[in-house]
Design brief:
- This protein is mostly helical.
- The chain has 13 helices and no strands.
- The N and C termini lie far apart (39 Å).
């Protein structure tokens, strides 16, 4: 019980306190969250991903394990959501929303922050892999799921090439595996930008919560929330055991698999 209280006070509460500032800025000061969202998405988030990958001490086997965990967990939860939607007799539109809500977790502004607060740089370096893989899948598989086959592969590809974190993942992996050295001034600039990513992500989370107008679709929402917050962690435990994931990597991945739904699903 003491351990749970320690996590709530020292790891969860700080996140909500910072998010509360964002909530206030949106509701009381009337600040537009879209500028902050684009700043995080196009500039700070890619710097965070690149910095974490370049400075990470994870080996190729660990990276493969973490990526496998992410893909398998999302695939299994998505399959369960599809089956539940069929059993409930949901329309194709509601079934699509159910799958997106269940599969794509808030691995960025929520998951990365919790992992860094709880496990420090080691937790962040592992959690970044989950974030990178989910970002890639969001703008590939997520687009196809949302379109239910009506969007052309060409349009989906155009959406993908506009995702800066994807290039950050590719560049970070290339530098890490090749042993190349990033010029010191450039790396310092990237690190500075990276340090601002998580605080702004939390402010953005509060602003996004301030935009909520209420919930009317309980019949679809409750199963989706149950799958995301209930089944996600359980599937994560099984996948971690199946692929032999242990230590900080296991803990970081389970946290990511337990996060609530990503706001980007509303965009999809």
């Amino acid at each position: 019980m003491r351990a749970i209280l320690d996590v709530l006070v020292n790891n969860i509460l700080p996140i909500f306190l910072v998010a509360t500032i964002g909530f206030w800025l949106r509701r009381r000061a009337g600040l537009d969250h879209r500028v902050l969202s684009r700043t995080v998405f196009y500039a700070l988030s890619p710097c965070l991903v690149f910095s974490a990958l370049v400075t990470s001490e994870l080996g190729g086997r660990q990276l493969a394990q973490l990526a496998s965990f992410t893909v398998l967990t999302m695939l299994l939860v998505g399959s369960a959501a599809w089956l539940l939607g069929r059993l409930m007799g949901l329309s194709r539109l509601d079934r699509t929303a159910l799958i997106l809500t269940a599969v794509f977790s808030n691995a960025g502004n929520f998951g990365l922050t919790i992992n860094e607060l709880r496990y420090g740089a080691a937790g962040l370096s592992h959690a970044i892999i989950y974030f990178g893989v989910t970002t890639t899948l969001t703008y590939t598989a997520g687009i196809f799921i949302a379109s239910m086959g009506k969007m052309s592969p060409q349009l989906a590809l155009k959406k993908l090439v506009r995702v800066p974190p994807l290039y950050a993942v590719l560049a970070g992996l290339l530098v890490a595996w090749s042993g190349a050295t990033v010029p010191a001034p450039l790396m310092s600039a990237i690190d500075i930008a990276a340090t601002g990513a998580i605080p702004l992500m939390l402010l953005l989370l509060g602003m996004q919560l301030a935009n909520l107008d209420g919930l009317t679709q309980w019949r679809s929402a409750l199963p989706a929330v149950s799958l995301r917050l209930g089944l996600g962690p359980l599937v994560g435990l099984g996948v971690a055991a199946a692929i032999g994931l242990t230590g900080v990597g296991r803990s970081a991945m389970l946290i990511q698999a337990s996060m609530p739904t990503a706001v980007v699903t509303t965009v999809l």
